[in-house]
Amino acid sequence: MTTSASQESKSSRWWLLVVAAFVVGGLVAAAVAMTSDEEGPASPRTPSSGSVGDPDIRQAKWKFTVQRGPGKKFSKKQKAYFVKQRRRLREMAREVFDALFLSPEKQRAALRANFTAKARKSYLRAGAGLPERADDVRVRRRSARIVIENNARATMDVRVVARGKAGPRTFATEHRSVLYSARSKNGWKVLGFTVDQKPFKRNKAAKSDEKNTGKDNSKKSKKKRSDNKNRKGDRS
Amino acid sequence: MIRRAIVLITLIASVCVLVPIAGQRSAGGSASTAPIRGGRVHAEHQPQDGKIFVLILGSDARSGNPTNSRADGVHIAGINTKTMKGGILNFPRDSWVNIPGSGSGRINEALYRGGPELAVRTVESLTGIQIDYWVLTAFEGFQNAVSDVGGRVPLPVKQGMYDRGGSGANIPPGTKTLTAVNSLAFVRTRKSLPGGDVTRTTNHGRFLIALLKKLRGDIETRPEKMFDWMQAARKWTRLDIPPHELFQLGLLTSQVKSSDVGNVTVPVSLGSVGAASVVFIQPGAQSIYDRFKANGSL
Lengths: 236, 298
Prior knowledge:
Oligomer: heterodimer
Largest sheet of chain A: 6 strands, mixed
CATH architecture of chain B: 3-Layer(aba) Sandwich
Number of helices of chain B: 8
Helix content of chain B: 40-55%
CATH class of the domain at 40-201 in chain A: Alpha Beta
Number of domains of chain B: 1
CATH topology of the domain at 40-201 in chain A: Nuclear Transport Factor 2, Chain: A
Number of strands of chain A: 6
Strand order of the largest sheet of chain B: 11-6-1-2-3-12
Strand content of chain A: 25-35%
Order of helices and strands of chain B: HEEEEEHEHEEEEHHHEHEEEH
Radius of gyration of chain A: 26 Å
Radius of gyration of chain B: 25 Å
Strand order of the largest sheet of chain A: 1-2-3-4-5-6
Number of strands of chain B: 14
Largest interface: A-B, 48 and 43 residues
Order of helices and strands of chain A: HEHHHEEEEHHE
Strand content of chain B: 15-25%
CATH superfamily of chain B: LCP protein
CATH class of chain B: Alpha Beta
Structural class of chain A: alpha+beta
Structural class of chain B: alpha+beta
Shape of chain A: globular
């Protein structure tokens, strides 16, 4: 009797152990998933996450080139750390520029998370991104060349080409940002930047309207366009 | 008993996993607004209202320890971080000045007597400008640093330089792209120049402005070149600037247009003290110091 009872209790212990292991495993998996979400949006934002891109429009894929800056050869540990930083910086580029061109409502949050306060204000003033009332945005090219120096500082040369509609007009814009970031206790933060964004193209109808309005007006508009030719932002 | 133990372990495990998640969530909110020294250099060293002053010392040491020699190049480089303008104030090496705690002497002796720190104090007491950083280099370091950043510095040479016996210069007038060797010859040459050492000192400032132009051109096309410049600075110069501040300082410097940087040499008159031939800084220099201190630019 005693042996059978002890065998029964042993088998029930096994079940309990298995259940406990599953519960702990599930919690750990949930925790990992939640923390990876916290670190930043790992997946590239699809147009469905934004308000200006048509979910049916296929956006260009991100092209990343990541290099190591000058300095001594890395140890194995440093290499592993470099891989980690590389991933984070890619995520940063995705988060900032996908927000800028596909989800303008997320722009401030993305800049707040990745820029220092001064750099963020300055970047917002630079006026980079989409024109007002932009819709049906199609990103034709997105690429970033990232160079990480000593796992502590990085430059990020990002180029985005986007097309879309802004009210009755269509536009095409070519954007280049160079972000200078440094790693602090709170992760990577952009300290300074340069922005260069070429003007939006006007559609043919708008151009013909302009021609009809006469020479003086066209001269004025040309002057205006030349003034806005290169919108360069300052660096903080 | 065992059941209770397992339940307890499960509970503890749940708490261990869930508490950090909650912590990270709350930390995530504060992290976005955490203050870091964004865009500013040396936040704790900015009593001068956004103006940064760097003392640049060029030692005459051919090789070895540059602090055991005299400083033939003494310059204050200033940047106004608000107006993004700058200036370089040059001091001829024979300027007769008061060296704090060491009597009077030529300005170049301050480095020999007390290292870069004494040179900083000497310049500070002379001008009233608070120096934030110092940078020291010598012949070898200068040449290697120029070489490491590409070695081709475009510069208009006003007067031809021919000093084969001394600096080794053989540079005809005109806009030249100086190699690292020629760059060193350019900043060393004084004998073939009409103004002698004073003109050479002015040339130092011109060369620094040409370097700034090169830095801007380099990082415009390839931003990561900034790291080559930082690496060259760290490798071939002695400086009291931590890497993260050097990065920020480099960023700030790269924003300043070379046309917005003034190059001024303090007005001097020739004289002698005993048997020594020196130059005396004229009283008119005080207004230049005041202007530089107030504006951060010249």
